[in-house]
Amino acid sequence: MRSHYCGAINESHVDQEVTLYGWVHRRRDHGGVIFLDLRDREGIAQIVVDPDTEESFATAERIRNEFVVQVKGRIRRRPEGTTNKDMPTGAVEVLGKDVVILNVAATPPFPLDDYVDVGEDTRLKYRFMDLRRPDMLNKLRFRSKVTSYIRNFLDGQGFMDVETPILTRATPEGARDYLVPSRTHAGSFFALPQSPQLFKQMLMVSGVDRYYQIAKCFRDEDLRADRQPEFTQIDIECSFIDENTLMNIMEEMVREMFHDLLDVKFSPFLRIPYSEAMEKYGSDKPDLRIPLEFTDVADLVAPVDFKVFSGPANDEKGRVVALRVPNGASISRKQIDLYTKYVSIYGAKGLAWIKVNELEKGAEGLQSPIVKFLGEDVAMAIMTRLGAQNGDIVFFGADKAKIVNEAIGALRVKLGEDLALYTCKWAPCWVIDFPMFEETNDGGLTAIHHPFTSPACTPEELEAAPEKALSQAYDMVLNGTELGGGSIRIHDGAMQKTVFRILGIEDEEAQEKFGFLLDALRFGCPPHGGLAFGLDRLVMLMTESQSIREVIAFPKNQSASCMLTQAPGLVDNKQLKELSISVRKPVKEEK
Ligand code: ASP
């Protein structure tokens, strides 16, 4: 039996006999004495094997990196001058008397005892090795602390952990479904849940009152950066509660967790209406660490001849904004070209700018390709509105509002990063008062949150002007990342049918797809609401990781496949036949 974890030994154990197990992180041969750095999940212990213990010494000579060994020995202080202050176990070592190889290891596909930059696909293919790296193990350990913290908090608040099905029907959360063919119902498919949304609402109808689940969710989304087809949500729902109370409980949970796990103290979260977030930052997940804001200048440029600006300024769906970057005039032309390329990813056709060199000189003191098109009066009026100072640079976005918001919003974040503009390390907030719907490309409406979100108005008002209606939805945002979001739900059948109708889901289709929900709403559904946090994203931020893949034990790669198991894979014809499926792509050769 193990007596201690390698990483747990210290000076209080001096002279104790111990039994350690682990992997050999590194072996060093020091002229007659062999040092083994033995690693387990808690850390590394230094083992000394000297030639007096002949058998163990011979064993130690055969040991290579990543061999699995058992060491029995006595703990002693390291000799004067050889202690290692950077290592938690660095004051002691184990005089290894009995060293046994429990298993050998092939040469690792990448070294674990030294930091080397390994391609991600290789790391994912050998994830079992990658996870041996202390950094990676620590992230898994931290993730486990987060889930256990959340469970404790929610248990303490009377929330009940209830599991919901994985084989189910589609839940509309805006992505494509992963489908699972049914063998017993030929031609029919289950969908993997995009979220447990409707089940948690059913649980409220059942009287569970307060529910949570650490739930796997599946979304077959287009491959955008840092999404996983399967991810984990902390899913929460509560009856007889209003928006404010629910947000307060959730905020308390997050604040206390950051305090207890990271020693970070948050002030009460700002609550920013969606309209204000879009106006100032062009985003419904503003990164409030960055002290830059949009200023609308459409009214100033509407009369000019310069169509690039006056076009959008006179279009009701257009927007013209300026983004003033204090002391940004030193940004080089080359860098501006790179930013121009960057905003083009978001559909911007260019990036206009003005460097403020000497404001006192009027237009002459402004360096820019566009001042001559704007004219001195307009250019100076813009400067006045912005409160511009010598040494600033001003960037402009002029296009459809959606493009301006996305492009200049992304530029704001990029500038914050590149110029190290952050005013604090953590900036949490709530975004509230979302609209109910947004326009689709074909002119229809789609729910911004999901179709079960309660509007903040009556069914009649909703029906009269759906595009103006606000919802009772809220998002928690941290450093420009959405940590979670939810809403007060519709608990009234008539309102639910109205929303379906506005979304173009006629009664018959609603009955076919969501009959069970409409039924439940008829049988005494309590007012209720909830939200879900993205666990992966939360842990990524808390551990300051670069991607959610760093905090998931076995993630898919960026083309949504598992490098470790080579999933998805082809299947035998026999299996397809059983499932009544024929595919156009080649199936696995039958043996
Ligand atoms: N089901 C929602 C989502 O996955 C969260 C919620 O409304 O509770 O985004």
Structural write-up:
This protein is an alpha+beta fold. The chain has 4 domains: 6-103, Beta Barrel (OB fold (Dihydrolipoamide Acetyltransferase, E2P)); 121-272 and 426-434 and 472-477 and 531-566, BirA Bifunctional Protein, domain 2 (2-Layer Sandwich), CATH 3.30.930.10; 290-423, 2-Layer Sandwich (Gyrase A, domain 2); 436-470 and 492-525, no CATH class. Helices cover 31% and strands 24% of the residues. The chain contains 18 helices and 22 strands. The strands form 5 sheets. An 8-stranded mixed β-sheet has the order 6-9-10-22-21-20-17-11, sandwiched between helices. Strands 1-2-3-5-4 form a 5-stranded mixed β-barrel. A hairpin with a 7-residue loop joins strand 7 and strand 8. Helix 10 crosses helix 13 and helix 15 (493-502) packs antiparallel against helix 16 (507-522). The two termini are 46 Å apart. The structure holds aspartic acid. Aspartic acid (ASP) binds at residues 173, 195, 197, 485-487, 530-532. The site of aspartic acid has 9 residues, from strand 21 and strand 22.
